[in-house]
Amino acid sequence: KFFITNQNTAERVVRFIVAIFLLPPLVYHDNPFAIAQAIVGSVLIFNAFSGMCVIYRFFGANTCKV
């Protein structure tokens, strides 16, 4: 399986909240920092919805109890 959940619910919620604050600058500014911020926010949104963190998977970490 490719998408194996390796994050607990609290961690997913925190990632989603942080991503919400990282995405809006892309709408208002078109500079490299805003684009980098939006990329990080997009990765966090993916992590929050999928429950899978690629870095956790690479290092073998798992915070999910399932």
Describe the structure.
The structure is a single chain. This protein starts with 8 loop residues before the first helix and ends in a 7-residue tail after the last helix. The relative contact order is 0.25. The longest helix is centred in the middle third of the chain and has 19 residues, at 32-50. It has helices at residues 9-22, 25-28, 32-50, 54-59. Helix 1 (9-22) runs antiparallel to helix 3 (32-50). With 66 residues, the protein is an all-alpha fold.
Count of strand segments: 0
Question: How would a crystallographer describe the biggest sheet?
Answer: none
Helix content: 55-70%
- Alpha-beta classification: mainly alpha
Query: Which overall shape is indicated by the principal axes computed on the Cα atoms?
Result: elongated
| Rg from alpha-carbon coordinates | 13 Å
Which parts are unreliable, with pLDDT below 50 for 5 consecutive residues or more? none
Helix segment count?
A: 4
| Beta-strand content bin | under 5%
What is the ordering of alpha helices and beta strands?
Answer: HHHH
Question: pLDDT average, as an integer?
Answer: 86
Distance between the termini: 15 Å
